[in-house]
Amino acid sequence: MSFTVYLSGEIHTDWRDEIQRGAEAAGLDIVFTAPVTDHPASDAAGDHLGETSSQFWRDHQSSKINAIRTRTLIEKSDFVVVRFGDKYKQWNAAFDAGYCAALGKPYATLHDEDIVHPLKEVDAGAQGWCKTTNQVVETLRYVLQG
């Protein structure tokens, strides 16, 4: 079986690379997709549309352009991994998880135990909660190979 997996969330560590390397080492037939992970580029996604009167409107404009990619890739995916890191509040990742839930798209969360409480609703909608990238790879291995 082949799978397309969207890797959503935290952009400041190499968790995506760890999952991709693990899936490759396990011989899994997976195409990975992701949002734009270059933070300044993501923040500037809508700048080509013209000057804005405030930071709010710049963020609003860029978030709409980013949403084209995010929504399209989530909709085309078979499975989504939503990563919550410990440094920043990733509201966009929570939104992606909610979007998956609304679509009936299976997803798993990836985060440490110290943020279980604030993510209780997000985790409740997920098909799994992983604490490590190895657990994500093992989940994918099981789903694809049984």
From TrEMBL:
- In terms of superkingdom, the source organism counts as Bacteria
Q: What is this protein called?
A: YtoQ family protein
One Pfam annotation reads: Nuc_deoxyri_tr3
Q: Which NCBIfam families match?
A: YtoQ_fam
